[in-house]
Amino acid sequence: MSRGALLITVDVALKCVPVIFLVAILVGFGTLSPRFLTVDNLAAILTQSSWLVIVALGVNLVLLTAGVDLSVGAAMYLAAVVTGLAFAMSPVWISLSVAILIGAAFGAMNGLLIVKLQLPAFIVTLATIFIGRGLALHLSSTKVIVAGRALADFGRAELAGVPVPLVLACAAFLLAGVLYRATPFGPYVRSVGADREGARRAGVPAQAITWSVYCLSGAFAGFGGFVALSQSSAASGSFGQNAEFLAIAAAVLGGTSLFGGRGTLWAPVAGGILITTVQNGLVTINANPYVYPVITGGVILLAALLDSLRLSTLARLQRRMFTAEVPATALVAGRSEA
Amino acid sequence: MTNSTAPRLVIEGMAKSFFGVRVLHDVSFDSYPGEVLGIVGENGSGKSTTMNILAGILQRDHGRVLLDGAAYAPRSRRDADAAGVAFIQQELNVFPNLTVAENLFLNRFPRLLDQVPLLSSRKMHARARELLESVDLDVDSHAAAGSLSAGERQLLEIARGLSGDARIMIFDEPTTSLTQKECARLFDIIGRLRMRGVAVIYISHALQDVIRLSDRIVVMRDGRVTMRAATAGKTANDLVVAMVGRSIEALFPERAARPPGAARVLEVDQVGEPGMLDAITFNVHQGEIVGIAGLMGSGRTELARVLFGLDPHTVGNVRMAGANLVSGDIAARLAAGVAFLTEDRRHEALMMEASVADNMALAALPMFSKGIDRRVQDEPLKAAMQSLAQQLNLKSGNLRTAQVRTLSGGNQQKVVLARWLLRRPRLFILDEPTRGVDVGAKEEIYRVLDQLASNGMGILVISSELEELIGMCDRILVMRRGRLGAKFDRTEFDHERILQAAFGQGDVA
């Protein structure tokens, strides 16, 4: 029994790791730099994390269906370029809608290739990274896109004292929350992630669900690209680069499994803030910029390690049931009465 | 009888093929409201395919199906649900990562308002509690379904079938994971469904249950209906004859008495792994067929995996011909002449897209490699494969070009057998060797194992079909909750007693 109790403790501990990790980072950077643990800086971290949280919300849904979307960074860039070029003079709400629509269309294409042509998501979205980025570079003639005045002001504005990017991130979270909690979408997504064929057999519209998570992933990426553009006021050729890995790491750090079916809506929020905190901390303590990628890589590895540990403890917890005091599980003989 | 009323379901001349292999030929039967129709047949007889077609999971190639007089051809499970055809499947279709309530309503979430596609959590859990109560399942509707036992999951599956207003309810092997008490509860539910005028189709290997529950019986064999009759007066043996085409004993070769004093091939000494296996001790001798019986989840497969080194063990010793084998060391076992046929050939054994020859040669390549570059000697390998194919009566066409995917279950299993026999093993461990295999191939597998044993191989067979173990083994060991319980020699084989040992005293289903 002590073994079982230990496993359960390990399981609970793994669930708390993001929180423990966050506290450790806060304390660590706080002791290294007096400027880190200030209200202003912590508020800045939240605002900075907005775009990543939004993008990770979409990627999280894809991961829950046991899929993957590597193309969200490209979708961000494409959405930013189109809004920056063609809708620079438009009201902000129009350019926001356009960015979301472009992202959604991009995701819809991914989804179609994955669902209809039965191609592996990994390969499809790997290929569409290049298609999306190439298209965006072509449209922008490889020039830096500068956000219009209205957009840049919007990115720095506040709504009732709360920075607009943060408000948008909250809106995105609420939207995803309604979809995930108040409609059958959530259980559908998780059933597809646990067993696609089983879900289809149980009457879940598995194909439509798979397609829609890629659409949503693209839409959230377009949304996140818009927010990032409004904050940074400019988009160069490297805009959104590696965002896909940060977004996947954010969702997995927060507790969503890379293998589908297991996770929460909070995961990308917690993970996104965590990653942004690390990045912010490295800047505040004036770390060597060449160290950033090393640390980011470490964070991604940590996320994968946590996921694998969670799964193996889960498997061990379930394996114990073989000889636990459960009712006799099956009749021996196929033709026992014959 | 209810034959005066109009039939609820009429199936006429239904046919279905997979990859050019006919699995259903001209299947016809009907079912009436307020009637329980029993369907029996061996694995691979076409029962499950027929039901999958009725539930919209597969589509038929030919034939006509009428539901209450109207043409019925569901394209998906959703279509079938909408038409009022509920299907309680054999494989537990429970999602461990969803809650109990979410599992119940996966195909029809209760809405907040009829026109608005928002789900009402309150309604869902209230309805869930009612349904759980109706099958006497005492679990929280908010709990993760993964925390339920196998029997509880089966009841959950049944409750899910009750969640709609079904016109037809199909039960496919619903009792495999149920205790005796839970079975009684299920039969009670079926009685009430019949009173409500639901047409019930009940599929089971437990022939006594079918005889007790059903009004009429359909027997299937090799994709055809071989008997269609009122249940009254039918005995289990009548059904077996219709299922198998002859009595069961005729399937097994006469087992010659084992020569006394044969050398031990395998010695298992106090082997244990916490939570899985506990102090397992037994031997397998040369020329002996030892069977392991037990319930699903009793540790049979776990034991086989430990013996072959696929999983580690922390306690005790495994010896081959006196030499100790380190826990988890597969290479040492292969070198000592151990072979292992898994219970899941599709996922764990075969490369479905590859040729028969590639699949067969896989484990024996090192034995047919020579010289400094270890090049595979094609001619001897080919000769060995061809002679084995002949010995096993493998029907595959050209070994080099035929894909394993296109073979029947029986021939696929022969490919796996051949793969291991190419290595000339001294001990062959087989986990469910006849699962998903037709009757003819079964008989051939029994014959081959008997021959191998008479040539001196030690054989350890795990099977869920007790008849099979009784038919071919010299000894049967019974596993229960990770332990070896009773042991039976061939002269003491007794159906009832072996079952009792598997269930533990006084709990015989």
Indicate the radius of gyration of chain A in whole angstroms: 22 Å
CATH architecture of the largest domain in chain B: 3-Layer(aba) Sandwich
Rg of chain B, Cα atoms, Å:
25 Å
What form of chain A results from the Cα inertia axes? globular
| Residues in β-strands, percent of chain A | under 5%
Uncertain segments of chain A are 320-338
How does this structure look, described?
The complex is a heterodimer of chains A (338) and B (509). Chain A has 338 residues and is mainly alpha-helical. Chain A is 72% helix and 2% strand. Chain A contains 13 helices and 4 strands. In chain A, the strands form 2 sheets. In chain A, strands 1-4 form a two-stranded antiparallel sheet. A two-stranded antiparallel ribbon of chain A has the order 2-3. In chain A, strand 2 (158-159) and strand 3 (162-163) form a beta hairpin. In chain A, helix 3 (72-86) packs antiparallel against helix 4 and helix 4 packs antiparallel against helix 10 (206-232). The longest helix of chain A has 31 residues, at 2-32. Chain A starts with a helix and ends in a 19-residue tail after the last helix. By secondary structure, chain B is α/β, with parallel strands linked by helices. Chain B has 3 domains: 9-245, 3-Layer(aba) Sandwich (Rossmann fold); 253-337 and 425-503, Rossmann fold (3-Layer(aba) Sandwich); 355-421, no CATH class. In chain B, 32% of the residues lie in helices and 26% in strands. In chain B, a hairpin with a 3-residue loop joins strand 13 and strand 14 (277-285). The longest helix of chain B is centred in the middle third of the chain and has 16 residues, at 180-195. At the A-B interface, helix 8 and helix 9 of A face helix 2, strand 8, helix 7, helix 8 and helix 17 of B.
How would you sum up this structure in a few lines?
The complex is a heterodimer of chains A (338) and B (509). Chain A is an all-alpha fold.
Ordered list of secondary-structure elements with their pairings:
The complex is a heterodimer of chains A (338) and B (509).
Chain A: H1 2-32, H2 39-64, H3 72-86, H4 92-115, H5 121-139, E1 145-146, H6 149-156, E2 158-159, E3 162-163, H7 164-182, H8 185-194, H9 196-201, H10 206-232, E4 234-235, H11 243-253, H12 267-284, H13 292-319
Antiparallel strand pairs in A: 1-4, 2-3
Chain B: E1 9-18, E2 21-31, E3 36-41, H1 47-54, E4 62-67, E5 70-71, H2 77-82, E6 85-88, H3 100-104, E7 111-113, E8 116-119, H4 121-134, H5 150-162, E9 168-172, H6 180-195, E10 199-203, H7 207-213, E11 216-221, E12 224-230, H8 236-244, E13 264-273, E14 277-285, E15 289-294, H9 300-308, E16 315-320, E17 323-325, H10 330-335, E18 338-341, H11 345-349, H12 356-361, E19 369-370, E20 375-376, H13 378-391, H14 409-421, E21 427-431, H15 439-454, E22 458-462, H16 466-472, E23 475-480, E24 483-489, H17 495-503
Parallel strand pairs in B: 3-10, 3-11, 6-9, 9-10, 15-22, 15-23, 18-21, 21-22
Antiparallel strand pairs in B: 1-2, 1-4, 4-5, 7-8, 11-12, 13-14, 13-16, 16-17, 19-20, 23-24
